[in-house]
Predict the structure.
Amino acid sequence: MEIILVLVGTLVGTLSGFFGIGGGMILVPILLLLGIDIKTAIGISIVQMVFSSFYGSYLNHKKGSLILGEGVWVGIGGFIGGAIGAYVSHLLPEKILQFLFLGLLFFALYRLFSAKVSDSGEVKRLSSIVLFVVGLIIGIFAISLGVGGSILLTPILAGFLHYPIKKAVSAGLFFVAFSSVAGLITKLSTGTIDLGKGIYVAVASLLGVYIGIWLKDYVHDTHHKLYLLIMYLVATLILIKKMFIG
C-alpha cells in the first residue's frame, strides 16, 4: 500500500502544480477506489494539500506568477472557513459528502467552461471585505469535502474577475495553503486523520509539484484551460462510478 500511496502522491502533486489545485479533487476519488472510506480520504487529502500548496506557492512566487496582495485577504477568510469546514466533514454522513463533492465538480466544470481565456488584461479589484467573505465561504465548503478550495476559486477568478488563467491557477494554489493548514489543525484536534498514510502521499507530492509547475510554463493559456476541463471531467466520472456503480 505504501508504494501505491507514493505513486499516487507523485501523480497528484504533478496535477497540483500544473493546475493550481490542492489535489484533493483528484486524490479523494483515487483513495475511494483504493478502498479507503471518504472521511479517511479527506484527512489524507488535507495533509497532502498542506505540503503541495506551500511548496507550489513558493515556486510560483519565484517565477512571478503569484499575486500576493489580494490573495492574502482571500487566504485569511479561507483559513477561518477551513477550520469550520473540517468540523463539518466530521459531522456529515458519507453519502451527503459524496453528493456535495459531485455538485462541487459540476459547478467547477461550468464556471471554467464559460470563463474567457486571456494572457493579459485588466483584473477587477474588490474590497478586502468581499475577498475575505469569498475566502470564508469557499474554505467552509471546500475543506469539508477534502479539497483546498482552488477548484472553486480558480473558476471564480478567471470567470468573474477576469484573471489571466495562469495567475488564477497560482492564486488558487496559494489559497489552498491557508485553508488546508486550518483544516489540518482542526482534523488533528479531533483525531480524525490518518497521519501515516497522509505523510507518504504528501512527501511524494513535492516532486510532482515541481514537475507540474515546470510543465505549466510551457503550455499556452488556451491549452491550459482545456486540460483543466479534462481533469475536472475525469474526476467527476471517477466519483460517479464510485457512487453509483461501485
Notes: Residues 2-245 form one domain. The chain has a mean pLDDT of 81. The chain has one domain: 2-245. The two ends are 20 Å apart (CA to CA).
